[in-house]
Amino acid sequence: LQRMLSMAVEVDRSPNCNSYKIADLIFPFILNIPVRSQREALLNSMDSHLLRCKLLEMMFHHSCDVPTTLPLSLSKILYFLGHSSVLLQYQDDVATWQRWDEMLEYLSLLLISYQNVILAFPLADHLRSSLYERMDLIIQKAKPRLQDDDEISHLDIYLKTEDFLSRMQQLLGQPFPLQIKEKVCMIQ
C-alpha cells in the first residue's frame, strides 16, 4: 500500500498537488483509527515524505482552534506547537498526558518529514517537482529554496517551547511527565 501511495504521488507532473489529494482522501480514515500504535504504524511506514507532511499538516489543522494560512514551513510547525490541542477525538482510553505525548510525536515526525522534503540531499527541495524536472534540478545541482517562513530565530523557538511547557504544566499539573519535556527538547 505504501509503495502504491508513493507511486501515486509521483505519477503526475505535480507531486505536491497529488500528495494533497491523496492526503485529503486518507485523512478521514486516520481520524477513525482508535489505537495510537496503529496510527503510528501507518504514518511511520509511509514511503513518501511529501505525503506524510500533507497528512500530518491536515491532522494539525484539524486540531487547531484558530487555523493559519502559512504555507508548510518551520514557522507553521512552531505555530502548531503553540496552537494545537489533543489531536484526535476518537482515541483509545489513555491518560491526557499520553495524548499530548502522541501530538508531540507527530509534530516531530512532521518536522523530520518536512526537512526531508526541503533539505534531503541530493533531492534538496525537489520532492515537490515532477520526476522529469527533478532529474534536471539534480544535474544542475540546484540549491534548496528556503521560504521566508523557514527563517526562524532561536528566540522564537525558545519562546514557543516555553509557552507550550507552561501550558502543559497548567493542564497536566504535578508531577509533570518527563516524556513530554523530553519530546519538547527533541523538537527544540
UniProtKB/TrEMBL annotation:
One of its GO terms (molecular function) is SUMO polymer binding. It comes from the Eukaryota. This is SIMC1 protein. It comes from Asarcornis scutulata. The gene is Simc1.
